């Protein structure tokens, strides 16, 4: 309650819309504040009462214009509707919340089923992060609040380059509970797109102003600056927007790697200056190639400028897997704990699992749909099923009898084998299945983290994924780094 006696809406889970004012009110070691929270839409039949009338310990950190709250007790995720808080000042940026619940404390296994933010509001975004330090390695299972949906992480984001998935309807993605989609800003406005910056390096040049493209389609030159990049993304209305970074091939070495990293830092400053919409989250992109020193330097310069999340870029371009996982582990260790970590371009099932357990939160890749276009299905046991092979011509079983996707419920391997090379329907059916496969895999990862059964999950996953071969050495080393045994 403010000095005038009025309740102020602090948003969901202690998200305080006026942090500077909150800090000014904490004049002593202990200040009691009364907040009114009226969000009945947060709760429905999926929620259950838990921990009622028991004091809970929370930590709130101010990031930008939002106070982020997370439980300190390992293994407890809470969604709270409380009337009274006691706030004890810990530092300029942190406050310790302790309170007695006067209304309700709730937990849910399925927070994504409840709408937590009214569409069109401008309250900002809150990340509720549960942190477990299991076997000395940081793993996270979190509820993410975005203006258009609620997203649980770790999460895989299918790639809809031009704003939609090839051959799939938005309704089909929603039916699969796909809540977040990666789109390509430049493809939606021009051609070529961001994914061509490396593959068409001969058509690209970068200087301090930005990136210049020679279109492989028209031959025209187009210049993309950090300011133009942000302007396009703001017009598109994306929940998360990315800075323009200087992309080089991951195997590049020498001074150009440091130059690209430092330029990405400078471009981040220009992107932040151009970014005016407070309902969109701007993610910096950490660069530095395979150099641990450059990655750390980039993180040190970018972390203080990141508001709600940060990406790890420049990987998954042909580097050795031993280098790949070690860079991801290093970045996750050095990046701020309260921010989601987005590892760009990761989509292989084993990579998703290892990176998630190392502490990464978000991933994107064209792998599921590209694999479908080549007539292959992703399956839990064995990894890939090549349905173009004649051995499936008379196989009338579903692709995967443990998959509940539309394809597995209605079509057989033999049918898909028949149409895969003749009709677009085959690619459509396989795309549906492969995306569902990745969404289910990430759901299994989240459940394993939440229920503290990562060890058994890893054992089952690796036995299925590599049933006909040895587990790769890089996987063994990454698992050993996390103090697990297989």
TrEMBL record:
Residues 145-465 form the tRNA-guanine(15) transglycosylase-like domain. Gene3D superfamilies: Queuine tRNA-ribosyltransferase-like. Keywords: Zinc. It comes from the Eukaryota. GO terms for biological process: tRNA modification. InterPro entries: TGT-like_sf, tRNA_ribo_trans-like. SUPFAM superfamilies: tRNA-guanine transglycosylase. This is tRNA-guanine(15) transglycosylase-like domain-containing protein. It comes from Parascaris univalens (Nematode worm).
């Amino acid at each position: 309650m403010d000095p005038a006696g009025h309740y102020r809406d602090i948003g969901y889970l202690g998200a305080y819309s006026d942090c500077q004012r909150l800090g000014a009110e904490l004049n002593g070691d202990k200040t009691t504040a009364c907040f009114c929270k009226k969000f009945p839409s947060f709760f429905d039949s999926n929620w259950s009462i838990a921990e009622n009338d028991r004091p809970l310990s929370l930590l709130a950190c101010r990031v930008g214009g939002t106070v982020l709250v997370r439980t300190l007790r390992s293994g407890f995720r809470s969604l709270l509707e409380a009337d009274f808080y006691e706030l004890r000042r810990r530092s300029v940026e942190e406050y310790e919340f302790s309170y007695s619940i006067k209304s309700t404390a709730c937990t849910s296994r399925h927070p994504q089923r409840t709408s937590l933010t009214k569409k069109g509001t401008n309250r900002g975004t809150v990340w509720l992060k549960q942190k477990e330090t299991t076997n000395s390695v940081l793993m996270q299972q979190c509820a993410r609040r975005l203006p258009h949906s609620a997203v649980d992480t770790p999460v895989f984001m299918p790639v809809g380059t031009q704003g939609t998935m090839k051959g799939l309807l938005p309704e089909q993605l929603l039916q699969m509970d796909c809540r977040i989609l990666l789109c390509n800003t430049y493809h939606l406005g021009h051609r070529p797109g961001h994914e061509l910056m490396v593959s068409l390096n001969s058509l690209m040049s970068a200087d301090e102003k930005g990136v210049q493209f020679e279109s492989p389609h028209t031959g025209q030159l187009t210049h993309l600056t950090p300011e133009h990049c942000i302007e396009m993304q703001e017009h598109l209305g994306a929940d998360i927007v990315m800075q323009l970074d200087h992309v080089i091939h991951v195997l590049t070495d020498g001074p150009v790697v440091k130059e690209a990293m430092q330029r990405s830092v400078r471009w981040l400053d220009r992107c932040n200056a151009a970014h005016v919409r407070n309902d969109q989250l701007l993610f910096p992109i950490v660069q530095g190639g395979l150099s641990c020193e450059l990655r750390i330097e980039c993180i040190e310069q970018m972390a203080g400028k990141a508001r709600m999340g940060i990406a790890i870029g420049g990987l998954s371009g042909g580097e050795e897997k031993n280098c790949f996982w070690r860079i991801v582990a290093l970045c996750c260790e050095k990046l701020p704990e309260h921010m989601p970590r987005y590892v760009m371009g990761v989509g292989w099932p084993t990579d998703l699992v290892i990176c998630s357990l190392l502490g990464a939160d978000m991933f994107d890749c064209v792998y599921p749909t590209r694999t479908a276009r080549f007539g292959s299905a992703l399956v839990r046991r064995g990894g890939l099923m090549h349905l173009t092979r004649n051995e499936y011509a008379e196989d009338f079983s579903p692709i995967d009898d443990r998959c509940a996707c539309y394809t597995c419920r209605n079509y057989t391997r033999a049918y898909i084998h028949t149409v895969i090379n003749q009709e677009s329907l085959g690619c459509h059916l396989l795309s549906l299945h492969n995306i569902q496969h990745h969404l289910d895999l990430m759901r299994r990862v989240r459940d394993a983290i939440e229920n503290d059964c990562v060890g058994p999950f890893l054992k089952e996953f690796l036995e299925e994924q590599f049933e006909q071969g040895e587990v790769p050495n890089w996987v063994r080393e990454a698992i050993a780094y996390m103090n697990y045994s297989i």
